[in-house]
Write a structure and sequence with these properties.
The protein is of the alpha/beta class and 131 residues long. It is built from 4 helices and 5 strands; from the N terminus they run E-E-E-H-E-H-E-H-H. Helix 1 crosses helix 2 and helix 3 packs across helix 4.
């Protein structure tokens, strides 16, 4: 199954891809509106022949926006959207980049990309446990 993992942000998005157990970073981008994000993600889904979307779900006030975004994304892509707890994925991504010595300038750009990978890996781990 071809999966797309998404780290949602009001401005920054990170995308990861998986076909099987291996998760790969796909791309990170900035948007000025959620409408722009839907268009971009829809194009990625078509290009990569995505079959399922996994959207990171934070706790707190942003959760309702992410759920609404997920419903819209499902409607616009026609694909099933699953929510995956993303607690602390961005912090974990930053820690990992610091550990390997990534410069601060590059960390900011790649934080959402790595967070998307962690979200998708968590989802795949859960799938493995329920099989």
């Amino acid at each position: 199954m071809r999966l797309l993992g998404i780290d949602f942000g009001l401005v920054h998005f990170g995308l990861a891809f998986s076909q099987g157990e291996l998760v790969e970073p796909l791309e990170a981008f900035e948007v000025e509106s959620l409408k722009e994000a839907w268009k971009k993600i829809t194009l990625v889904c078509q290009r990569e022949k995505i079959e399922r979307i996994v959207l990171g779900l934070p706790k707190g006030r942003l959760a309702s926006k992410v759920k609404k975004f997920g419903r819209e994304l499902k409607e616009k892509t026609g694909l099933p959207v699953f929510f995956q707890d993303e607690d602390l994925t961005s912090q974990e991504a930053v820690r990992e980049m610091i550990a390997i010595g990534k410069p601060k300038k590059r960390r900011k750009k790649e934080e959402h990309l790595l967070a998307a990978c962690l979200i998708l890996e968590s989802y795949l781990d859960l799938l493995g446990e329920t099989r």
